[in-house]
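Quick check before the chapter quiz. The format below is the same one you will see on the exam, so make sure you can read both the input and the output lines.
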Amino acid sequence: MPELPEVETTRRGIAPHIEGREISEVIVRQPRLRVPVPMDLGERLVGARIGELSRRAKYLLVPLSGGDVLGGTLLWHLGMSGSLRIVRIGELPRKHDHVDLVLDGGAILRYHDPRRFGFVDWLVDSPEGDPRLARLGPEPLSEAFDGERLFALSRGRRVAVKPFLMDNAVVVGVGNIYAAEALFMAGIDPRRAAGRISRERFDRLAAAAREVLAAAITQGGTTLRDFVGGTGEPGYFKQRLNVYGRHGQPCRRCGAELRLVTLGQRASVYCPHCQT
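Here is the expected output.
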């Protein structure tokens, strides 16, 4: 599933090609996504100009102005297997290429999603009021996220620290891959109850989460199977993974065999020697 670094990589990849461009045509080949594509999307968007792209958690926000929209935002989510990429006019669609935004200047923003768990939706009002965004926690690379917040929210909590870190009300965008890697860097056993972790260790965990996510963004995300960035390139952070997907292999730090457990219905790999 594309996580925060993959979505941020996509935003950075497509932004130079679409910001300031006018939408000349909208092609919807498959409207039955997780949220059905609005039937009048083409009528609304043709003639609108794209503003500066932003990201909130794993959502891409595409602001529009002019044409018939008079302001509004496209809310895009990549789901489990979705990707957005830039192609040239005349490039034939592949299977599972569901939505095209044809732009002036000869480029197309094309949405590909084999599993159709992603969506594109139209928001007339401010995105901050949308229920999908309103209850989200802070961005992990912002000053609002730190060990103090983790420590305060964890008091009295028996939930294991890994699903606690992955809770979008605590902090957004720290998905399964990056939570596992951050816990390894911080030396914390993912099974440990969040309420039993000290402030000092949460400081290390917050710093590790920021470091892991920043490094993944620099490397273009993690390509495990489906993900490609906005220009069609895979992400290379997979080569730097210490624990995720490596159960049964030796720990890169101490050589102990990495173990696999299930936490919050997600597979979790950890080192029994380095993580306590």
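If your answer matched, good. Residues 182 and 212 are 6 Å apart (CA to CA).
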